[in-house]
Amino acid sequence: MLVIAALRWVDPRPGVDPLTGAVHTDPKASGPSAADECALAHALRIAGPGRCVAVTAGPPAAEGLLRDALAAGATDALRIDDAGANTAVALTAGIRTLGPPDVIVCGDHSLDHGTGATPALLAHAFGAAQALGLVELSMDGELTGLRRLDGGRRERLAIPLPAVCSVEPTGLRPPRASLPAVLAAQAAAIPVVTVDSGPSMVQAGEQKPYRPRPTHLGAPAGDAHHRVLALTGALTERTPPRVVRPASAAEAADELLDFLRKHGFLEP
Amino acid sequence: MTEFDVVVVGAGPAGSAAALEVARAGLSVALVERGPFPGAKNVFGGVVYGRVLDELIPRWWERMPVQRWVTRRSTMVLTPTQALTVDLRAQDWGQAPYNGATAHRSELDSWLAEQAVAAGATLITSTVVTGRSATGVRTDRPDGDIAAKVVIACDGVNSFLAKEAGLFKAREHNTLGVKETLALPRAVIDERFGLTGDEGADFEIIGCTGDIPGGGFLYTNKESVGIGVVLELDGLTAAKVRPEELIAELKAHPAIAPLVRGGELVEYSAHLIPEGGYRTMPELVTDGMLIAGDAAAMCLAAGIWLEGVNFALGAGMYAGRAAAAAIAKGDTSKAGLAAYRTMLENSFVLGDHRRLRDMPGLVLSERVQRRYPGLVCDLAQGMFEVDNAQPKPGLRKLLREARRTHGVRVRDLLRDGITAMRSLS
User: Fold this and answer.
1) Which residues contact A174 (CB under 8 A, 6 or more apart)?
2) Domains in chain A and their CATH numbers?
3) Ranges for the FixC-like C-terminal domain (chain B) (predicted)?
4) What is the pLDDT of residue B170?
């Protein structure tokens, strides 16, 4: 059985330029999200003695995440060097080089404004069943998952293979790696697959700051005193405020409707 | 069991320098760091003096991750309403081989560790050394024992290894350093501090911590400033004041407020500092183990000198050399490693600490902390105050009045002056 842990390498606290909106990430602070750590732990557990491959799409700095996965028990690792912007396409291309997967486990969504679409796109690409929002995943002859529903309810799912499962961050974490495993993982060669997933399928328009068009307002006539009065609206006739205290919600609604009719916002 | 010739505990400046020297000697060395990467949890004021790196990394200034090169060094004496500043600007410090630099520890420590790894050291992160074993050290990982002929403890101010070995003295003058990093646009920093390009400023401040012995600092980074206070622990406990309140007071001081106004708080950090100096250093060598850096109290807080990273680098370098030499001789006992102490004594590391051994006590004394700032500020104010109805008062009269106002006796003034002159001469 081939189990893939598809992990997202992400900076949990990226800097965002308040003026331009540009996002700056720090490779040192980057790593897996809690959901991805949970996904790796689930993948290691359901793979048992079988093959569990940790896969991520990212720059060479992302190999630290894969070495941690190897130290924790993954049998192999694969880094996908993607020149494009479609994570799911890149992951699909990379995973295909490993053979047909039985189970792909992901975090439910990444921390960098992830939409949670990657698991669905992977399921579509591999023709696999998709189970999302899982808090438990187990392989006991068949793959079963526990899905969290609203109101504290749970739904137990029998998941056919092949499957793409996305898990929520729970308390489950990969086992603490032994020192020999850490050293072996440091020395391991990480295979790299280079793909180009193409430009992002989601095209956003150019972002510009709000700049309302200037409107010409003629200067009021008269001497300085009258101009100031005109500009401040001191002499403008206005409807004085009226305090109403309706006795019930129905009377309050009637009051509001009357006001809107009186000022032409509703038909009389 | 995992085996190395040397295991270095702590990938700070001392640890990385030690690992670099051991690796260059052709020995296997493990550099064990408890953070996820070197520098992940480290804190310092913000200035590193890098000339000691001349021996370790040729033309280090071309590669070291630096924020700014310090070309302006100011010593400020504050009272709540006064400030007296000695302001030195040296343009020579803005060119190779430079003098001091502001830097971020996460970048500096990672870079130093990279040099060690490039030389052949094995960096093991996210791993806590929990103590010594018969053959090396134990870690918190499964199968985590590491066998090594020599252990170099660079595990910081609260060194567990030095404590376990019984080398740790009860430390006087342990201080707490707290720092705020305030983001400001680069152009604003340049304008406020009178800097251009990569020039940086370093302000050391005394008289800004109220009744608590300590001091303050203000450093410029590229697009932020680091401002903070260093507080003697016993005084802080007795005063029942929170450190951030003292930083807030410092930021509101009329001499400091215009420099930091509008800064956005992006980081708050705190760390213990072993400011006791030479008199509080533990034994540096024991059978199979050397101690370096903050673990050995190698932090110089001597009034106008506030240094630590350079001593850590120097001590780590000599520890690495001593360990390699001892292993080559086949004697890693206390006697076999004794060359470490000799190297330190023949260098600036213990030379400076020994010469300035009385300064930490003087700097943190009640008179220097609470009486002298007011005395010198009043003296300077009196000299420059023009009251033309009266003739200018003589310096002797001003000094007498300032002494009386602040309760400073002549013999105390003379005694402190002699102590300072002896240390500085």
Assistant:
1) A37, A40, A41, A44, A68, A69, A72, A73
2) 2-195 (3.40.50.620), 224-262 (no CATH)
3) 366-423
4) 67
